[in-house]
Amino acid sequence: MISRFLIAAGLSLFLFPIIAADTPNVILIYTDDHGWPDIGAAGIYGDLKTPYIDQLAADGVRCTNGYVTAPQCVPSRGGLLAGRDQSKFGLETNGSSLEGFNAEVTIAERLRKVGYATGQIGKWHLGPAQEIPTHGFDDVFAKNSGAPAFATFRLDGSDREPGKDDTKMYHLDACSLAATAFIDRHAEKPFFLYVAYRAPHVPLDAPEKYLKRFPGEMPERRRQALAMISAMDDGVGAIRKKLEEKNLTENTLLFFVGDNGAPLKIHKVDAPGGGPGWDGSLNEPMNGEKGMLSEGGIRVPFVAAWPGRIPAGQIYDEPVMSLDVAATAADLAGLPKDETRDGANLVPYWSGEKEGAPHEVLHWRWASQSAIREGKWKFLRGGSREYLFDIVGDPEEKKNLMVSHPEIADRLRKRLQAWTQELNPPGFQGDSMPEVWNQYYDHYLDGKPVSKAVAKKLKDDTIDGWIIRNGQLRKRAGALHLIDSNGKQRFAPFITNSRFAVKGPVEVQIHMAKAPSGDVSVQWREEDQKDFVEGQNVLFSGEGNLRKGTIGTSGEIVHLRVRFDDGTNAAIKTIRLQRENGKVLQEWDFSGE
Q: d(Cα 120, Cα 45) in Å, to the nearest integer?
């Protein structure tokens, strides 16, 4: 007769799996809008200072053909954490519903079920920060700006009730400190740590201690990007030092991966203020940029190290993908195979246990763009445009081989289309693209010059962090002027800014060059809100040239939209955010020339 003790023990083993002593920790550092060549180890740009990332590559493997699943933040992150192509659960673009992602079981949830401690640090971008623990993360320090973090532990490593942490540290430094605190908290058991730095993504906000590392003549946006990358590099150094202190170096697999290519806006305009536009990072010699399925949009920095298990100093040229991170972690933790998941365990290929390529093909679909890579061949669709590249011989995607190799293009098109039937929704998504993507394809893939009018518009539509919609901006005669495009726009122009953070309540004052003939109103978005919320709108009062209204929220305001009924005649001298007692929190003064 089997004793109750043995039954209970067996049940305990079933419910609480015992982790093998050699089960490794996994750390994933995920960067933001970071161009493929923008680490020193790539050997392309000499202005970088990334000694710790370079040492990580020297101690492990640098993948020259490392890809992500999408050229945009939200789907890239959703696929990464689900370990499954995000278009299979409907998370194709930044504007897609999160319902499909919320139903997925993340790699953090899967690892937690087998005894791993799990941590998320930095940028989330997959719903409210307060919901991060529901996706499998025990410890959270969600911070990507000067606004307070949502935190479940303190930077000194102690426990706390979930809530806002208003540390005044630079957000990249705070994330690095949170990462080392997490390691201190969980050094005695296996852990999975996801560190998502918001860098070098705009707004460009590096403090002087990093900027001064890059003196000399260069575009200011490039200096900012270099400084933010350098801050992340310091974080890599701090994390590796902490692993060494805890004697965990040889039991930790550490990934360093980008989320998509850098946004260049074609012209890399060195606009002042560090707001929307080029983020200062570079993709060349890869072609294209964020928002494209060309190499510049989806090929990213991809480095990994596991001293003692992965031989050092490797340059790995076979194509790999961000989905492989979750697949690798799951296999190393001894999780059962799951055919619904995508990706491959990369460690056997890096250690020499397996030969060949981890993937026969890689696929992408992002709205009306789609692509497939099979060996050296890449077939790319952008709306109704089609391209075939020898991506090994022509990684810059300069020679379209559709005419010379139609049989290869036809085979890859059919294979890609068959794969899209697995997606939600299925199939290719339309034969037309938005105007901006057409401009990108014209410029990067078809070699057409961008007109001076388009170039001027790209330059003029962002001033001091303010962007215009449905029109153009001009700064002249001591004011910021909103200009309708020949009066033919369906909606009146409005301006928007998301490169600031102030805690409410605040009074918004707009001093105009002349009294507006219609209403003036402001919408706002708070830190934890993905989109503007109905009802968060203030209609301004006042007479003459001054209009003002109060945003009564006590939350952190991170985004404004200012609307003018008579948008064609709006001319703004100053926009000011202040307290009830008159203390000015933020001011934009357009009155100077």
A: 31
| pLDDT tens digits, one per residue of 23-76 | 999 999 999 999 999 999 999 999 999 999 999 999 999 999 999 999 999 999
Confidence class for position 449, pLDDT limits 50, 70, 90: confident
The gap between the terminal CA atoms of the chain, to the nearest Å, is 92
Burial pattern 258-273, b for ≥16 Cβ within 10 A else e, equals bbbbbbbbbebbebeb
Q: Which residues have a Cβ under 8 Å from the Cβ of 197 and sit 6 or more positions away?
A: 29, 30, 31, 32, 122, 123, 172, 175, 232, 235
Tokens of 297: 């949009």
Residue 482 in any domain: the answer is: yes
The CA–CA distances, whole Å, from 425 to 100, 126, 386, 420, 491 equal 12, 20, 21, 8, 30
pTM assigned to the model? 0.77
- Answer yes or no: do 86 and 59 share one domain: yes
Distance, CA of 381 to CA of 370 (rounded, Å): 5
Q: Is 511 found in the same domain as 436?
A: no
Shared domain check, 438 and 398: yes
Give the max Cα distance, the chain.
95
CB 489 within 8 A of CB 568: no
**CA pair distance 149, 146, nearest whole angstrom:** 9
Decide: helix, strand or coil at residue 55.
helix
Range of the domain at 432: 365-444
CA 427-430-433 angle, to 5 degrees, is 135
Cα(196)–Cα(125) distance, integer angstroms:
10
**Residue at a domain's end among 390, 410, 444:** 444
> Is 39 part of a structural domain of the chain?
no
C-alpha span between 441 and 289 (Å, rounded): 10
Give the pLDDT confidence score for residue 2 in this predicted structure: 36
User: Closest Cα to residue 209, out of 237, 174, 173, 166?
Assistant: 173
pLDDT tens, residue by residue, 403-418: 999 999 999 999 999 9
Residues 318-355 pLDDT 10s: 999 999 999 999 999 999 988 889 999 999 999 999 99
Q: For the chain, give the number of residues.
A: 593
Structural domains counted in the chain: 3
